[in-house]
Amino acid sequence: EPEVTQTPSHQVTQMGQEVILRCVPISNHLYFYWYRQILGQKVEFLVSFYNNEISEKSEIFDDQFSVERPDGSNFTLKIRSTKLEDSAMYFCASSEAEEGDYGYTFGSGTRLTVV
Amino acid sequence: AQTVTQSQPEMSVQEAETVTLSCTYDTSESNYYLFWYKQPPSRQMILVIRQEAYKQQNATENRFSVNFQKAAKSFSLKISDSQLGDTAMYFCAFKHWGSSGGYQKVTFGIGTKLQVIP
Fold first, then answer.
1. Do B47 and A105 touch (CB under 8 A)?
2. pLDDT-based confidence at B95, cuts 50/70/90?
3. Which of A24, B12, B19, B89 has the fewest CB atoms within 10 Å, i.e. is most exposed?
4. Residues of A with Cβ-Cβ distance to B47 under 8 angstroms
5. Inter-chain contact A45–B105, Cβ cutoff 8 Å?
6. Which residues of chain B approach chain A closer than 8 Å at the C-beta?
7. What is the C-alpha separation between A66 and A60, in angstroms, rounded?
8. Among A17-26, A99-108, B84-93, which stretch is predicted with the lowest mean pLDDT?
9. Which sign does the torsion angle of CA A97, B62, B105, A78 carry?
């Protein structure tokens, strides 16, 4: 069964450093998303991406965040200057383009720890 | 704005028994999708079941079924013959169906932690 692959599974970074979280969506999917989940809290929408541009973003997704699809297969989330409160599980997801909606396929997540 | 409410923070069920997880939502839209996602200890997010709002028939997926009450804006998940592997966090989720395509965000509830007891 096709999978969304995220790397690394765990990243530890110093406050103020830049991090790049990587995702390889399912190959025939055209819509891509990042969500995050702070420990013990609900999953929160960050950003959606389609046709090489951001479709929608939440208030969490401020100027410190950016997304890119640099080579047609990878989909990255960059946090420019990490803060302690950025510590969370980050999930990448992708979805199909056809009519109807089958929900997302999520990756297994990257646990980001900012120290 | 859509909201999703899960009022049961934790539940437990004996193995092989049936359990129902509650979810209510609020929206002014008429076309939307509802989902239940499972998050086991590995923290992966796994789609369990989905329901289109325009369908009256309740979705079923093996041991998982939903009770969708559109007028009441209720979407509960029933797990029959509970198994130890069902132990997980369960998130109810809502997505508006838009003519613009599949980029609409999903709004999640806060989750219900289900423990299946041997």
1. yes
2. confident
3. B12
4. 102-106
5. yes
6. 33, 35, 37, 42-47, 50, 52, 91, 95, 97, 101-111
7. 12
8. A99-108
9. negative
Q: Which of A55, A58, A89 sits opposite B103 (nearest CB)?
A: A55
Of residues A52, A37, A32, A24, the one with CA closest to residue B103: A32
Q: Across the interface, which of B44, B102, B104 has its CB nearest the CB of A109?
A: B44
CA-to-CA distance for B110 and B107, rounded, in angstroms? 10
Asked if B103 lies within 8 A of A58 by C-beta distance, the reply is no
Q: Which of A44, A101, A106 sits opposite B44 (nearest CB)?
A: A106
Task: State the pLDDT confidence band at B78, using cuts at 50, 70 and 90.
Answer: very high
The encoded tokens of residue B86 equal: 């069902």
In the numeric block, which tokens belong to residue A18?
Answer: 């830049």
- By CB atoms closer than 10 A (0-12, 13-18, 19+), residue A74 is middle
From residue B117, how far is each of A112, B78, B83, B87, B111 by CA, in Å? 32, 17, 9, 9, 19
Q: Is the pLDDT of residue B26 over 70?
A: yes
